[in-house]
Write a structure and sequence with these properties.
There is one protein chain. This protein is an alpha/beta fold and 201 residues long. The protein has a single domain, classed as Rossmann fold, CATH 3.40.50.360. Helix 1 crosses helix 9 and helix 8 packs antiparallel against helix 9. The termini are close together.
C-alpha cells in the first residue's frame, strides 16, 4: 500500500470542529499517511466574533494554516469538517468549496477519496443533512466518498452515526472522548482506502 497524502480541511468557530479535525488527522497519521490540517478563511464580521468570547478566543489562538486549492490538488484523500448551519455547511467552508471549479473542470479532483464530519448544538440540528450536503460537492467532482460506516464496533456501540463523525455540542460543550475516537477511526479509514487506491496508480 502506498503512503497516501491526506488533507483535513475545516471551518470552526469556537474550536469544536478544529478538535475533531485534529483527531481525524491523528488517525490518518497513525495509519502511515502524510497529513496536513488546514482551516478556511474566517469571513464573519469582527462584531459578530467579538460578541461570543469562545469564538473570539479561538480566532485569536488558532495556529492552523489557511487552506489553498494546492492542498486539494496535493492530497489523495480529503476530509472536510464544519459546524451545521441550518442543516448545511457553514458559509466559510462553502465559500472555499465554491472556488474549486477550476480543479473540477481539469479533473484534478476526480477519484480522490473524500469524507465529512460535523457538529451541531442539538441532536436533531442537521448532523446528517450537513454531511450529505458536503458530499454533494464530491459527487460533482467525481470523487470517491468514504463514510465512517459501522466498520468499527465503537461507532455502532457509542456514536451511532455511519455518515461521518459528529458531535452534539450542548451549551457549547467540546467533543468528548467517544466522538474524538470516532474522528480518529474516520481518519484511519480514510487513510487506508486512499492508500489502497493510490497504490493502484
Amino acid at each position: 500500500m502506498s503512503v497516501p497524502r491526506i488533507a483535513v480541511i475545516y471551518y470552526s468557530a469556537t474550536g469544536n470542529v478544529a478538535s475533531m479535525a485534529h483527531a481525524l488527522a491523528r488517525g490518518a497519521g497513525e495509519s502511515g499517511a502524510e497529513v496536513i490540517v488546514r482551516s478556511v478563511v474566517e469571513t464573519a464580521s469582527r462584531e459578530a466574533i467579538a460578541a461570543n468570547p469562545r469564538w473570539q478566543q479561538f480566532v485569536e489562538s488558532s495556529a492552523d494554516e489557511i487552506a489553498t486549492l494546492d492542498d486539494l490538488a496535493w492530497a489523495d484523500g480529503l476530509a472536510f469538517g464544519t459546524p451545521t448551519r441550518f442543516g448545511g455547511p457553514a458559509s466559510q467552508l462553502k465559500a472555499f468549496l465554491d472556488t474549486t471549479g477550476g480543479l473540477w473542470f481539469s479533473g484534478a479532483l476526480a477519484s480522490k477519496v473524500c469524507t465529512s464530519f460535523t457538529t451541531a448544538s442539538t441532536a436533531h440540528g442537521g448532523l446528517e443533512s450537513t454531511i450529505l450536503a458536503l458530499n454533494n460537492h464530491f459527487y460533482h467532482w467525481g470523487s470517491i466518498i468514504v463514510p465512517l460506516g459501522y466498520v468499527d464496533p465503537h461507532v455502532a456501540r457509542v456514536t451511532g452515526n455511519p455518515y461521518g463523525a459528529s458531535w452534539v455540542s450542548r451549551s457549547g460543550a467540546p467533543p468528548d472522548d467517544s466522538s474524538l475516537e470516532a474522528c480518529r477511526l474516520q481518519g484511519v479509514r480514510l487513510a487506508q482506502v486512499a492508500g489502497r487506491l493510490c497504490g493502484d496508480d
